[in-house]
Design brief:
heterotrimer, A alpha/beta, B alpha+beta, C mainly beta, A: FAD/NAD(P)-binding domain, 24 strands, B: alpha+beta, eight-stranded mixed sheet
C-alpha cells in the first residue's frame, strides 16, 4: 500500500455485523480504522452481547445463529489493539468530514474522517393503533433484546402482533423461555406466504428455519393467526387486550400482559442524510434508502453504507456488506485486488435480495393499516400528534410534503426525530393527499443531533481551545438577530 | 439538510406540474392592482392588508407560503431592543398582534408573557436605561429592573446579572403557524395566492408591471418585492442594487421541560435569546450557523450549538441535565446596518421593497404589511418609516 | 397496572443496591436501569405532555421513550444505561422549580 493510502483515516459508525466485518477487512489490509458504537460492546442488535454479569452460553442467547454471533464477537475481540474503538459513544452529527461525538463521561468530541463507513443498522418498523402508547406495549425487537441482553421476559403472557419473520422468531424464543404466548397475530394472510415460497427458495436454510419456528409454535399450541388486522390495544387495569379482526372480518380479542408489535425493519439513515448522501425511494421497502452501488458507495465520494442501515437484508447480508464497503474504500484509495471478492459478495447478496423479495411478499407492510387508522390514533408519540391532525394539515392547508406536515403539526419533531412515527406518518399524509405511494410526499430530513444530547457548560470552550481560532470563526460570530 | 433545502427541492418538485402550477399554466393572463412577490409573513401580510383596502392582489410564492425565514426564526414577538427607526412600524404591528386570533382564526400560540433584555454589567444596565428613554417617545414602555428586582421576579435566572429591561407587552408565538396562516388570511380576503411558482422575469409595462411566473403573465399597477433573502433577483431586474447579505441563525431546542420560564429572554450586547414554548421545549439562539453563497443550503453549526448551550446554562441554570433534541437554521436576508428596507423604490415608480429583516422581521411583518398597503393605496403612510427607506442605500 | 417483567430464574446475578424515587430497590448486576425499575414498578415515568405512564418501547436507544433522571440532574436512557451500586434513579423527569 502506498504511504498516502496508509494514512487514510477511515471511520466506521456501528459495530454490529457490518461494522465489525468492515473493520476486519481494513485491518487485514493494514489500516487502523476508528470504530464508533453507542453500545457497551460489539454485536449491534441482532448479536447484542449481554453485560458481563449476564453472560450466558451463545447457544442460549442466539439460537440457530449462535455460531455466526460468536464469530462476529470473536472477530471484534481479535481487532482490539488494531482499531481505535470508541464504545458508548454517540455520533450525533456529520458535516464536511467531521463527526460530532458524545460520550456519557468524556462529553463532546469530534472525529474527522477521510472515508466514512456508516453501518448504523435498523429498528422495527411500526404502525400506530389506538392504545399503542401505553406502558406495556413494545416492539418485537424490544422483546428480543430484553430476553437476550437482560435475561428477562417483558411479560409472561405476551401478545405478538405485526408481520415479518421476527414475529415468529420472537414468539418462539419467548415460548421456549417459558412464556405463555397468548397469540401470534400476523397481519399478512396465509396465501401471501405460499406465494412467496419460490423466492424464499433462494435461501433454503433460512426458509427451513422459518418453517421450523412455525411448526414448533403449532406443536406447542401457540395460537398463530394469519391475516389478523390489529384494531386497538386496550388496558383494563389488569391486562392488555388486543382487539383485532380475523381473515373473515370478525372482531376478536386476545388478552395478555404485554403487547409487542413490529412490521419488518426501518433503516437508520440520519447520519447518511447529514453527511449529504442522496436517497432513492424503494417501492419494495416503502421507505427512502441511501443511494448506493453494489459495494456500498454513496453519492458522496467519501461516504459508504453497509448493513441494515443501507438496506434491511439481515445479519448475513450485513456481514458481507461491511466487507464490501471496506473493500470499496480500499479500491478507492488505490489498494488493488478487491474486485474478485466484491464480485462474489455481489452474487451472494443477489441471492439474499431474492429471499428478501420473498419475505416482502410473505409479510408485506400493510400500508393501509397506517393510512386508514382512526383520526384519534396517536401517530407521533413524542409530540402526541394524531392522525386526524395530520389529515387536517393536508386538507386545510394543502400540505403535500412530510417536512411541511412536520413543521405544521410537530409530528416528527420530538426526541426520536421521527424514527418511530416517520413511515406511518408518511402513509397517512400520502393517503390524505391522494398520493399512490409515500414517494410522492417527500422524505423527512434529518436534523442534528440525531439523538438527544445534554447541555454542557465547557464543551464550547474546550472545542475553541483545541481548534484555536477555528472554532470561533466556524461559529460565524454572534448574531445581531434578536438579542441586541 | 434543512427546511431551506427542503423548499428548494419542493420548488423543483412542484414546478413539475401541480395544482398551483396548473393555475399559472402557459398563456394564462392575470391582472391585478398589485403583484406581491414572496409569500413570507411580510408579503402575506401586505397582500392581506391590501385586500382590506379593496385593492386586487396577486401573491406569488416560489415554494410554500411562510416556510422560509418566516418559519425558521426564533418566534420572538418583540418591540424592545429594535433600532429606533423600526419602532413606529413595530408599534403598529403590536396592535395587530393583539388581534391575531381574529385575523388568522387562531392565536398561533401568541403569548405576551414579557421580554427581558439581560444586562451583565452596570454599563449594560445604563445602556438599557438610555434605550428606555429613547424608546419612550415612540410609546414603548420599559421597566428597568436592578439585580435584586430581577432575581425576585425571575428566580430561575442565573446569578451573574446586573439587571434587565422588561417589556411587559412583548412575548412570543409559533412562527410556523403564524406565517402560513397570514397567506391563508390573504387568500380568504380575496388575494390570488399562487404557490410553487417563481417569478422568472418582471419588467415595466406602461404605467405598471408585467411579470412572468410559471407560464402565466401577471399585469399589475404596483409591484411589492418581499422576496426575503432572494429579493435581489427582483431588484436587479430594474437595475437596483442593495447591499443585501444573508445570515443563518443557529437555533436549538430542548425536549419538553416543566414550565418555568416566565418571560422571553434576550441579552444586551452579544447574541443570546431563549424562550420556553407552551409545550415546554426551550428554544435558544444567538450564534450564527453556516450557509452557502447560492442561498440554497445552510446547516446548523456545532460550535454555535455548543456556545449556545454554554450561554444557556449560564443564564438559565435549570437547563442543567436537559437535552437538546433538534437544531435548525434558515436563510435570512440582512443588511449591514441591521435594518430592513421598507418603502418605495427611488428609481422605479410603483415598485416597493420590503425585505432584509435580518431575522427579526417576525414581529414587524403585520405592521409592514399595513404600512405598505397604506402607501400604495393613499400614496403615504401614517407610520414613520423614514429610517427604513430604500433611499438610504442610494449613492450620495 | 401490574408489573410484567419476569427474570429468567437460571440467569440471576449478584444483587446491586439502587434507589428508585428515594426508596431502596434491589437490582442485579448487569441490569439496565429499565430492567431495574420495571422489576419494581409498572412504569418508568410519565409522559410530560399527557401524564400517561411510559415503560419504554424499543429497548435499543432509538425511540427515546425511556428517559429517567439519575442523581437528581443527569438524564439517561433507561434502556441503554447499566445500574451501578448506589445509583439513585428518579422516575420523574421534572427538574423541579429552581429556587
Amino acid at each position: 500500500m502506498n504511504p498516502q493510502a496508509k494514512e487514510t483515516r477511515v471511520v466506521i459508525v456501528g459495530a454490529g455485523p457490518a461494522g465489525v466485518r468492515a473493520a476486519q477487512a481494513l485491518v487485514q489490509a493494514g489500516l487502523r480504522p476508528v470504530v464508533i458504537d453507542e453500545g457497551n460492546a460489539a454485536g449491534g442488535q441482532i448479536y447484542r452481547q449481554p453485560p458481563e454479569a449476564r453472560r450466558r452460553p451463545a447457544r442460549a442467547l442466539y439460537g440457530f445463529e449462535w455460531k455466526k454471533a460468536q464469530a462476529v464477537h470473536q472477530a471484534w475481540q481479535a481487532l482490539q489493539g488494531s482499531v481505535q474503538a470508541h464504545t458508548r459513544t454517540l455520533a450525533w452529527n456529520c458535516y464536511r468530514g467531521v463527526l460530532d461525538l458524545h460520550h456519557p463521561e468524556q462529553g463532546y468530541g469530534r472525529q474527522p474522517y477521510d472515508r466514512l463507513i456508516l453501518a448504523t443498522g435498523a429498528m422495527d418498523r411500526v404502525i400506530p393503533l389506538p392504545g399503542w402508547d401505553q406502558a406495556g406495549v413494545y416492539t418485537l425487537g424490544a422483546a428480543q433484546i430484553s430476553l437476550k441482553a437482560q435475561a428477562c421476559l417483558l411479560g409472561t403472557r405476551p401478545v405478538f402482533l405485526g408481520t415479518g419473520p421476527l414475529l415468529y422468531l420472537v414468539a418462539y424464543q419467548y415460548a421456549k423461555a417459558g412464556a405463555r404466548v397468548a397469540a401470534v397475530l400476523d397481519a399478512a394472510p396465509r396465501q401471501a406466504k405460499l406465494a412467496a415460497l419460490p423466492d424464499m427458495a433462494a435461501r433454503p436454510a433460512m426458509a427451513a428455519k422459518g418453517a421450523y419456528y412455525l411448526a414448533w409454535l403449532a406443536a406447542h399450541r401457540v395460537p398463530v393467526i394469519h391475516g389478523a388486522r390489529p384494531l386497538a390495544i386496550e388496558d383494563d387495569g389488569a391486562s392488555k387486550v388486543v382487539h383485532w379482526r380475523d381473515g373473515g372480518g370478525a372482531r376478536r380479542a386476545t388478552g395478555g400482559d404485554v403487547a409487542c408489535l413490529g412490521y419488518g425493519l426501518r433503516a437508520e439513515t440520519q447520519l447518511a442524510d447529514l453527511a449529504g448522501c442522496e436517497f432513492d425511494y424503494s417501492p419494495r421497502e416503502r421507505q427512502w434508502l441511501v443511494r448506493r452501488d453494489a459495494a456500498g458507495r454513496t453519492s458522496r465520494p467519501e461516504v459508504y453504507v453497509a448493513g441494515d442501515g443501507a438496506e434491511p437484508l439481515g445479519a448475513d447480508a450485513a456481514e458481507l456488506a461491511g466487507e464490501a464497503a471496506a473493500r470499496a474504500v480500499l479500491q478507492d484509495i488505490g489498494v488493488g485486488g478487491q474486485q474478485p471478492r466484491l464480485d462474489a459478495i455481489e452474487a451472494a447478496t443477489a441471492r439474499m435480495r431474492r429471499f428478501r423479495r420473498g419475505l416482502e411478499t410473505a409479510f408485506a407492510w400493510p400500508a393501509e393499516l397506517a393510512a386508514q387508522c382512526a383520526d384519534d390514533t396517536l401517530v407521533c408519540r413524542c409530540e402526541r400528534v394524531t392522525a386526524g391532525e395530520i389529515r387536517q394539515a393536508v386538507r386545510e392547508f394543502g400540505l403535500r410534503d412530510v417536512n411541511q406536515v412536520k413543521s405544521w403539526t410537530r409530528c416528527g419533531m420530538g426526541r426520536c426525530q421521527s424514527r418511530v412515527c416517520g413511515l406511518a406518518a408518511a402513509e397517512v399524509v400520502a393517503a390524505a393527499a391522494g398520493e399512490p405511494s409515500t414517494e410522492g410526499v417527500g422524505r423527512l430530513r434529518a436534523q442534528p443531533p440525531v439523538k438527544p444530547v445534554p447541555f454542557d457548560a465547557e464543551a464550547w470552550s474546550r472545542m475553541a481551545a483545541s481548534n484555536g481560532e477555528g472554532a470561533a470563526r466556524q461559529a460565524g460570530g454572534t448574531a445581531g438577530g434578536e438579542g441586541r | 439538510m434543512t427546511q431551506a433545502d427542503t423548499m428548494a427541492r419542493a420548488v423543483a418538485d412542484l414546478a413539475a406540474g401541480t395544482a398551483a402550477g396548473i393555475a399559472a399554466r402557459a398563456s394564462t393572463r392575470i391582472a391585478a392592482d398589485v403583484l406581491v412577490v414572496g409569500g413570507g409573513i411580510v408579503g402575506s401580510a401586505t397582500a392581506w392588508a391590501l385586500r382590506r383596502r379593496g385593492l386586487s392582489v396577486v401573491l406569488v410564492e416560489r415554494g410554500k407560503a411562510g416556510m422560509q425565514a418566516s418559519s425558521v426564526n426564533f418566534g420572538g414577538v418583540r418591540q424592545q431592543g429594535r433600532k429606533l427607526p423600526e419602532l413606529p412600524v413595530s408599534r403598529r404591528a403590536r396592535r395587530i398582534w393583539s388581534d391575531l386570533a381574529r385575523v388568522l382564526g387562531s392565536d398561533c400560540e401568541f403569548a405576551a408573557i414579557g421580554h427581558v433584555r439581560l444586562a451583565r454589567s452596570e454599563a449594560d444596565l445604563q445602556a438599557l436605561q438610555a434605550y428606555r428613554d429613547q424608546a419612550a417617545p415612540y410609546g414603548l414602555e420599559l421597566d428597568i429592573l436592578d439585580g435584586p428586582a430581577l432575581r425576585r421576579r425571575y428566580p430561575w435566572l442565573g446569578r451573574d446579572l446586573a439587571g434587565g429591561s422588561l417589556c411587559a407587552e412583548d412575548g412570543h408565538a409559533n412562527p410556523r403557524l403564524v406565517s402560513p396562516r397570514f397567506a391563508r388570511a390573504a387568500a380568504e380576503a380575496g388575494a390570488r395566492v399562487i404557490e410553487g411558482t417563481a417569478v422568472e422575469r418582471v419588467e415595466r409595462a406602461g404605467d405598471g408591471f408585467l411579470a412572468h411566473a410559471g407560464g402565466a403573465a401577471i399585469a399589475s399597477r404596483w409591484l411589492v418585492n418581499c422576496a426575503g433573502a432572494w429579493s435581489m433577483a427582483i431588484a436587479r431586474q430594474f437595475g437596483e442594487t442593495f447591499p443585501l447579505g444573508a445570515i443563518y441563525p443557529n437555533m436549538i431546542v430542548t425536549e419538553p421541560l416543566p414550565a418555568f420560564m416566565t418571560c422571553c429572554l434576550g441579552l444586551y450586547g452579544t447574541g443570546f435569546y431563549a424562550r420556553q414554548v407552551g409545550r415546554g421545549s426551550v428554544v435558544i439562539g444567538g450564534v450564527r450557523a453556516s450557509g452557502n453563497d447560492s442561498l440554497d443550503s445552510c446547516r446548523p453549526n456545532t460550535a454555535a450549538t455548543l456556545k449556545e448551550m454554554s450561554d444557556a446554562l449560564h443564564f438559565i441554570p435549570a437547563l442543567a441535565g436537559a437535552n437538546v433534541i433538534r437544531s435548525w437554521t434558515g436563510i435570512e436576508g440582512a443588511f449591514p446596518d441591521g435594518m430592513p428596507v421598507v418603502g418605495p423604490s427611488t428609481r422605479v415608480p410603483g415598485l416597493f421593497h420590503a425585505f432584509g429583516f435580518g431575522g427579526h422581521g417576525f414581529q414587524l411583518g403585520p405592521g409592514v404589511g399595513e404600512a405598505m398597503a397604506e402607501l400604495i393605496d393613499r400614496g403615504e403612510t401614517d407610520t414613520d418609516i423614514s429610517g427604513l427607506l430604500p433611499a438610504r442605500f442610494d449613492a450620495p | 397496572m401490574p408489573k410484567t417483567l419476569h427474570r429468567l430464574p437460571a440467569a440471576l446475578s449478584p444483587e446491586v443496591a439502587v434507589w428508585i424515587d428515594g426508596h431502596p430497590a434491589p437490582a442485579r448486576a448487569g441490569d439496565t436501569v429499565l430492567t431495574a425499575v420495571l422489576e419494581h414498578r409498572a412504569a418508568l415515568q410519565r409522559d410530560e405532555l399527557s401524564a400517561r405512564p411510559r415503560a419504554g418501547f424499543c429497548l435499543m436507544g432509538a425511540c427515546q421513550d425511556c428517559w429517567v433522571r439519575l442523581h437528581g440532574v443527569q438524564r439517561v436512557r433507561a434502556c441503554s444505561t447499566l445500574v451501578a451500586p448506589g445509583m439513585r434513579i428518579d422516575t420523574s423527569l421534572a427538574q423541579g422549580t429552581p429556587a
